[in-house]
Amino acid sequence: MNIAETTSPHPLRYRSVPTLHDLPRPVYARVEDIAQPKATQPHSHPWIQLSYASRGVLQIRTAEGWFLAPPQWAILVPPSVEHAVFNSPGTEMRSLYIATDAMPAAGDNCQVLAVSGLLREMIRHFSRLPAEYDEEGAQGRLVDVMLDLVCEAPREAFSLPWPAEPGLRDICSVILAAPQQPLRMDEWSAQSKVSVRTLERQFLQQTGLNMRRWRLRARLLRALPLLERGDSVTDVALGCGYESTSSFIAAFRQFFGVTPGRFTPQGSRKSGRSGS
Length: 276
What we know:
six-stranded mixed beta sheet; 20% strand
């Protein structure tokens, strides 16, 4: 998989990544308000990155998968993991760069975290502090609590695991490009020169999901940027392969815990006013 690829419905431009040789403090805030859909070239950092957007939808691609975070979620990227970041229009990013010794339990794989209202406000407040904040005073204590909240945040399955075998990667690319299309199991097994049963077993071993569940997750994750740009729930449901809006809403609610309307521009504004 080329991690610079994207399924974003928006025209894409690239943005630069700031050059930092060292962090001035154990945690550094990167503040960006990005009006247009953009992406970074694949890159890595020697520190942990928490990519969070209080508005907009973030996507992070790595060699291991595709990770997606609408508002109220964030993506934790371990040190030295090559990744590319994609954002939807009107994204308000408040990302954290975290020294590895400040959060040694970050793990080895990217994770999508649920961001509580308290953690969201702490990130916003911290992003307004000077880069060389007072580590020994109240600002340092705020950072300690903020990192505790990051460590304790629930992990979510808002990701698509990517197989290592090139033939299976090709199949995933086909599914992701058109998740509304039926699975072509006979064709893919013939191309792979294995039985359908063997193909399904290999896919499950490498991704942890069977192809049908992988496609279901691809459909639901693919729906988010479409909803965010203002497409109607009905159009998104049909475009993602659902026969009815009601079945799409039910599947969406089961996976994300909220209805698709929460991710429309109107729903986002209502949520922002209510503080949820």
